[in-house]
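Two entries, shown back to back:
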Amino acid sequence: MKTNSKSFFKVIQLALLCSIAFVPSFPSYGHLYGLNYQDWKNQNDGLHVQFETIPPTPTAGTPSVMNFSVQDLNTGKHIPRFNETITILSSDASSAPNNIVHKFETKTIRGGDFSENYTFPSGGTYDIWLRIDAPTVINAAKFTVFVSSPQFQFLNMGLILFPAIIMVVIFGSVLIVVAHYVYKKNSSKKDKN
């Protein structure tokens, strides 16, 4: 009887652990969620803007998506209607006049959530400026995006693989030393016989 109750409790513990580990996260009210989004808040005008990129670290030359959610800071609800203009600036002064890499056309947004597809031309740090023209307020929110370049990815891959390479070299060296020791020991036994 004891073994059955112990196994029953182990099954219950395992089920609880799995249910905690695999609980899906659901968005609330259509706002952005997860670990990657950035927040911008203006207490005076009661604005809250969330921003994220998909993938979290865009790669130069590869399409990415910029997601925005514009909300009323006090109620948490979306701003129902406003005009938005997105401007992308580069930290590299030689990239473009006034550091402006791209400026999207102004659009009217209904519902608060919107996104733009964009392919960053090169690696580095970019500033994403969002201008919001609502009936009661005009504001600008700034977000920062790091864009990976193929050269950086190669360097990053090298840094990730470096510990593995060191472990392979150490393991190989130990294996060679042990093989050499075993060979010498077997050779000395054969010489004695």
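entry 2 starts here
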Amino acid sequence: MKGKIVVISGPSGCGKGTVIAKLLDRDSSLKLSVSMTTREPRPNEASGREYYFVSREEFEKRIAAGDLLEYTVYNENYYGTPKTELSKAQEQGTDILLDIEIEGAENVRKSAPDNLITIFLAPPSFEELRRRLTLRGTEDPEVIERRLARAEKELAEKDKYDYVVINDDLESTVDELYYIIKNK
């Protein structure tokens, strides 16, 4: 039985990373697809764990070689999903989670892989999203404003997903996503 591909998207600061970490802690049979990016690592991030951090030139070589299921540019950096990791997990029957932006999700939908579930994780409010981004303390105010402007556009796309889950309580959000992944 082929594993499911579960796309989880949502604005920066909506809690995708935290929710995904909780899902992985809950069920060791779930696997996170590690995306590739040209952005600089944040403190405590390691290549191969959160992302594969590569140069712009390396990323563009991967695009030309057709090695990516999807890719997009976000805040002037490339982000993409390597095909090899995904196909291997699916063939092994492993459900694999993709934490990707809305453009990437659209590209995955267009490629029509088997067993695809798309989930949009939304913040309870725009004000709460601003608060979360500010408290994270990883970006300067200009970057936060760019992320918020992008978030407005992303929120307008949420109805294109199979499911929309509002992350207003961490444990209930994790429960809801886990139910969707295991039962749909």
